[in-house]
Amino acid sequence: MTTIHTSDKELPQPCSIGNQPEVSGCRWQVWTATIGLSAGFIAPLLGSILAITVWINGPVWHGISLRHASTALFLVAIPLLVLGAHCLDLLDIKIDEARHALKTEPNAKRSCEIPPNQTP
Asked: Please, what is the Cα angle at 107 between 105 and 93, to 5 degrees?
């Protein structure tokens, strides 16, 4: 954590985006939420492109049934969106717990804080 040096005291600056406390052990939830939500939005778009391709060219391309592939992409989007939303909820719970811990113990050391004697 970077600090601002003033005449009387050092004021710690938050190291996370949006002044949210640093939460350790939640990296897998961030990645799962990102991948789940991204793939959940991309899968129906690809399914739509395949459906349009079926309407224009026909239902079979090099032995692959495009109609089944487009349907599968539409169906897989729902569980991916649910998984991404669930991981976002888990992250929100962890962030709320970290905020509560910072309010109850204001002098607690954050995980990204740099001691005053060291420079980054």
From this structure: 45
Cα torsion angle, 109, 111, 112, 118, sign: positive
Determine, yes or no, domain membership for 36: yes
User: In the chain, how many domains are there?
Assistant: 1
Q: What is the pLDDT of residues 28-46, one digit of tens each?
A: 888 999 999 999 999 999 9
d(C-alpha 32, C-alpha 17), whole Å? 19
Quick check: is 38 in a domain?
yes
pTM of the model: 0.62
Distance separating alpha carbons of residues 72 and 64, to the nearest angstrom: 13
Q: d(Cα 10, Cα 102) in Å, to the nearest integer?
A: 18
